[in-house]
Design a protein that fits this description.
Elements lengths: L7 H31 L3 E6 L4 E4 L1 H7 L3 H4 L10 H17 L3 E9 L5 E12 L5 E10 L1 H15 L4 E6 L2 E5 L1 H6 L4 H4 L13 H12 L7 E6 L5 E13 L2 E10 L1 H14 L10 H18 L3 E8 L2 H8 L1 H18 L5 E6 L2 E7 L5 H19 L8 E8 L7 H21 L6
Antiparallel strand pairs: 1-2, 1-5, 3-4, 4-5, 6-7, 6-10, 8-9, 9-10, 11-13, 11-14, 12-13
């Protein structure tokens, strides 16, 4: 019994140790509170009933209340009814599972009646015995961010241009204008792959152009085709820039439909290569297409035939019957060529009363067959049309052998020489004065 009693010395040592622990706890608590007070975001601790038991100066500033007013205040007193209801469910879930959670769009009612939109984290607190005592967390003011987001969304929805956000290749946001280009509502596109509406032939080009613009190597908008919900093809002009969206990297796109502009450009292009009187290609259109087809034919080892034709007696028709009749004769000749040749062949009025045709996929014996066919349709036309003149042509034809490549200029020169030889023969026979 005597040995179980503590000596005075032992008691004093234990008291000293206890004081040291208490001092360490006070120092740790002071350090903890100093850290909490230095945090820019609000910090709070509430009991299980939702009453504030501790908070830092930042939270006090957010609320607009004094420290004395705020201490012990229940969270229902400084939140909107909607927020209070949402908080109740979330804190119950944290209490049940012990898993921390985050509360978005937490609406705080300040003392002066104004509202703050907050983002609040919550986690469970326990005492030394492991008993659940309340909740703690961080409060962040996102009012400005929320207002800015709403402002951007309002501007976006009222914009004359399409606006969209793509993240991980998927539409995260698109305004009504942007969705309407493809014939959709925004809700139908959000969550879908952004390239799903791009024409398959343009997807790689769009990806490369966007990559160049995002890296700063391109500043001009790029154009591409989309396929609408109804299956139509439309043209879009787009610019993109890198942004952060909901905390992660994303792409902000601005777009405009330019289908009408592209159609206008195509009309201008067609006009620039088309003869307005006969609706055939003009010299420029013929040379452009013929050069392309010769390269294709040489690659595929296919033969081509070039025909040169000059309308006979055009001077007499114009001088005696008038230029209106002369124009009719040119149109008649154009219609004859359209009947003789296929739609894939390139038919052109290359100047005045001269025509040229590049027949694709022709063989070496094709000139004879083609000459007979051409004369046959000329004869049919002259038998049916009584306009005071007959259609007559001087023709030169030359074959392009894929085994012996040559340029379009060389082909045209050979065909032109052959055509003039035929015209000379006609003049010599006094059948056609020229």
């Amino acid at each position: 019994m005597k040995n179980e009693r503590k000596t005075k010395k032992q008691i004093l040592e234990e008291l000293a140790a206890l004081r040291e622990r208490e001092q360490a706890l006070r120092e740790n608590e002071e350090r903890y509170r100093t850290i909490i007070e230095s945090v820019e975001d609000g910090y709070y601790e509430i009991d299980l009933k939702g009453n504030l038991v501790f908070f830092n100066k930042a939270l006090q500033n957010l609320s607009g209340y004094t420290k004395e007013e705020l201490l012990g205040m229940n969270n229902r007193q400084y939140t909107s009814p909607e927020t209070a209801k949402k908080m109740y469910g979330i804190y119950n879930e944290i209490y049940r599972t012990g898993i921390a959670s985050k509360i978005s769009d937490y609406v705080c009612m300040r003392k002066d009646g104004t509202r703050k939109v907050l983002e609040v984290s919550g986690s469970l607190m326990k005492n030394a015995a492991g008993e659940k005592t309340g909740f703690r967390g961080i409060v962040r003011d996102v009012t400005t961010r929320k207002q800015t987001g709403e402002l951007y969304r309002t501007l976006s929805e009222r914009s004359f241009a399409g606006v969209h956000v793509v993240q991980d290749g998927t539409f995260r946001y698109i305004n009504f204008k942007g969705a309407s280009y493809a014939g959709y509502n925004p809700e139908e596109l959000v969550g879908k792959k952004a390239n799903s509406i791009i024409h398959p032939e343009d997807r790689e080009k769009v990806k490369n152009n966007a990559r160049e613009m995002l890296s700063g190597n391109r500043i001009s908008p790029y154009e591409f085709r989309i396929i609408t919900k109804q299956g139509e093809i439309r043209w879009i002009m787009e610019t993109v820039t890198p942004i952060h969206y909901e905390g992660r990297s994303a792409i902000l796109g601005n777009s405009m439909e330019i289908s009408e502009k592209k159609q206008y450009e195509e009309d201008i292009r067609i006009m620039s290569i088309t003869d307005q009187l006969t609706c055939l290609y003009n010299r420029r259109g013929f040379l452009t297409l013929a050069e392309q087809q010769i390269k294709v034919a040489e690659r595929n080892k296919e033969g081509l035939l070039l025909l040169f034709a000059d309308l006979d007696d055009m001077k007499r028709i114009n001088d005696t019957l008038g230029h209106k009749k002369g124009d009719e004769a040119l149109v008649d000749a154009a219609n004859i060529f359209k009947k003789v040749f296929r739609g894939s062949d390139i038919i052109a009025r290359i100047g005045g009363d001269e025509f040229a045709v590049l027949a694709l996929g022709a063989s070496k014996d094709y000139p004879d067959v083609l000459g007979q066919r051409l004369q046959h349709f000329i004869d049919i036309h002259n038998a049916r049309k009584k306009r005071g003149y007959d259609i007559s042509m001087s023709v030169g034809m030359t074959y392009h052998d894929p085994e012996k490549p040559c340029t379009i200029d060389e082909l045209m020169s050979r065909a032109d020489d052959l055509m003039y030889e035929q015209k000379k023969i006609k003049r010599a026979n006094h059948n056609h004065p020229g």
